[in-house]
Known about the structure:
By secondary structure, the chain is of the alpha+beta class.
Amino acid sequence: xxxxxxxxxxxxxxxxxxxxxxxxxxxxxxxxxxxxxxxxxxxxxxxxxxxxxxxxxxxxxxxxxxxxxxxxxxxxxxxxxxxxxxxxxxxxxxxxxxxxxxxxxxxxxxxxxxxxxxxxxxxxxxxxxxxxxxxxxxxxxxxxxxxxxxxxxxxxxxxxxxxxxxxxxxxxxxxxxxxxxxxxxxxxxxxxxxxxxxxxxxxxxxxxxxxxxxxxxxxxxxxxxxxxxxxxxxxxxxxxxxxxxxxxxxxxxxxxxxxxxxxxxxxxxxxxxxxxxxxxxxxxxxxxxxxxxxxxxxxxxxxxxxxxxxxxxxxxxxxxxx
Length: 322
């Protein structure tokens, strides 16, 4: 069997990132759009001598939509679950319940072959070290302020919130995250975010921002006004299909993957070093209280970030973190 670049990426995911051991079982949950990647993960798991099962469903409609109940049940019965899907299963009860059962889970929302090959060729030991260093810094913080030359100026409280490092190494029971990965993130305290953020990188479900940036005005934790042409109208429609809590300021994250590039695939875009992202909707998976079936991240390029008035990032460059 000739080992392709996709095979190599699949094996890195299984062996290095998930730490799969002999006699462990792997479930691959995919959909018709991501069949080639799903089957690559499955076939390489089998070739490596692991017990594996491949299940396929129809693509979800939005990020955060629950998979069918029988698939959610299956997810709790394996040592490792890999989810290369069109829409994200990261912020679902199915993923949370499986993690609580001790399953190690990697989600690959919107994954493409290019992103898989490029992203899983990274040095995850370096990414993990960078990600953990940033986690320790953010754990000491009380308030974040983000500004950019385009007009972003938003602040929110982070005191007491769990800081989550997505290092790309999910080796212990119950650990989960995206692959490819490289980010440190948290849920801002509900109701505390105020200001404006300009999404100029990419937006989950909508792709790269090319012509008109999305301007999101935030008051007391909710995105009250969203403008920016056709792409902004599409975002509003997605949010309004779920309801008021879809506009909750759900996440603040910092990319730590130095090999990731803006591609229009949010899975990769939010990991790009030199960017931050702010998400709307569900924050239940990161210790918040808002549980709605939507989670949409907006990537902001070249941000300057202050934590408690101290410079953490200047025009996209992390201060004191290699």
